[in-house]
Amino acid sequence: MRSALLGLCLLPVLAQAQVFKCVGNDGTTSYSAVPCPASEGQSTRIIEPAPPSGVAPPPLSLPRIETQGAAEQPQRRDEERADEPPARGSRVTVIQDSASQSRDARVSEMRERAEREKRESYDRDYDRKRMQQMEQQIRQLQEQNKTNPR
Q1: How many structural domains compose the chain?
Q2: Whole-angstrom distance, CA of residue 92 vs CA of residue 19
Q3: Which of the 8 DSSP states describes residue 39?
Q4: What pTM value is reported for the model?
Q5: Can you give the residue range of the structural domain that contains 114?
């Protein structure tokens, strides 16, 4: 009986999860259950307090369903929702990304640089192969001159 009670007391501890917010060197944000690698930029542990036990969540008020005036129903629902306070824990706040323009510029610059390096790499490989072919032709001509002197 005591072990069951102890086990029940430890259940809320198991329900808590650690969430880490990782901001990479390139400005990208990701969330994970494990800490970010040191080379990946900044890591922040997000701690959300657990709701107090024994307190019931506030009841959600549901809109009334009316059978008459169905055309006016969506407008009434919108008005009812505007009057109600937002439910606890169900809000999402969208924050505008202030660095999106500079990040977009960096991304396009990085893409251009990668394309340029790729093109230069292809050009170097082509030049190297062309030089090898020319050297091979020169060797063949030298061997022909040794075997067939003029």
Answers
A1: 2
A2: 17
A3: G
A4: 0.32
A5: 104-150
